[in-house]
Design goal:
Length: about 290
């Protein structure tokens, strides 16, 4: 009798190359792994490369927690031109030579001013919805789009190199931050124009692109097994509690149990070294939100 293959379950870090869409990578993974339940946790534009976290099997229920994690990027922008997409894939809409008189100190100060909690205007070519429709689709139909500002957090931003008109920088930011908007806004802050020319996502929360496999390695079962992150280990940035058999039974049936952890909206609950639930701690009690059994 042929032994039944155990279904894959976990979070798989993949290094997306520039070119394919995030959905292309998911489709490739579904074919290679023979698993339909696969989703990613944050879109990368086709021209961008870097870390995609693929949630496989029951781990797709972790997607919302992974999506909300802070992101880190290495990016290059070019001063002197604005594009309709705020990146190099778009058409140039305006040009300026004002960048030629800029010095390094002025440039670094403009980037430093981006740090902190601040409003950000998303690019018109984005997946943001207006009356239920993606903004980029409206723009492609020739409609005028003015997206409202959203609050983002730039945890850290650092200039890596300056070779005018190009500037390479590293940024760590909240989920939902547009690096294209940073390039546009820095250009305006410097009294010129700017757009993004390269983008690479280097981390999502505690997960690094250094631990990711290539798209080609999706066909290698050994590489996949080595890189696959167990559900219990995927959310290491959240508080964690290990429970015994009795508490596990209560939580499995949706009942709260006593808890000594401080109040927190997201608690990772482990039983027998496996993810049992995602819960909420409040007033000395742990309430299960999602149970994994």
């Amino acid at each position: 009798m042929t032994k039944r293959r155990e279904p894959l379950e976990g979070v798989l870090p993949v290094d997306k190359p520039a070119g394919p869409t995030s959905h292309d990578v998911v489709a490739r993974a579904r074919r290679a792994l023979g698993e339909r339940r696969i989703g990613h946790t944050g879109t990368l534009d086709p021209f961008a490369s870097g870390l995609l976290l693929l949630c496989i099997g029951r781990a797709t229920r972790l997607a919302e927690y992974l999506t909300d994690m802070p992101k880190a990027y290495r990016a290059t922008m070019r001063l002197g031109a604005a594009t309709d997409t705020d990146d190099a894939t778009g058409s140039i809409t305006a040009e300026s030579d004002a960048w030629r008189s800029l010095d390094d100190a002025t440039i670094r100060a403009a980037f430093a001013a981006e740090a902190g909690t601040r409003p950000q205007r998303p690019p018109a070519y984005s997946a943001k919805k207006i009356s239920g429709e993606r903004a980029h689709r409206l723009v492609r139909r020739g409609e005028s789009v003015e997206l409202p500002e959203v609050e983002v957090v730039i945890h850290a931003i650092e200039v890596i190199s300056i070779a005018l008109p190009d500037i390479t920088f590293h940024v760590r930011c909240s989920s939902g931050t547009y690096i294209r908007s940073i390039a546009r806004d820095v250009g305006e802050r410097l009294g010129t124009l700017g757009h993004l020319t390269e983008l690479r996502r280097t981390a999502i929360g505690p997960h690094s692109v250094a631990d990711a496999i290539t798209v080609e390695q999706l066909d290698d079962p050994v590489a996949v097994a080595d890189a696959l992150i167990r559900p219990a280990d995927a959310l290491t940035n959240f508080p964690r509690i290990t429970v015994g058999d009795e508490d596990a039974r209560h939580l499995t049936h949706g009942r709260p149990v006593p808890c000594s952890l401080p109040d927190a909206e997201t608690i990772v609950v482990v039983h027998d070294d496996r993810l049992l639930a995602i819960g909420r701690a409040a007033g000395g009690w742990l309430e299960p939100n999602k149970v994994f059994v």
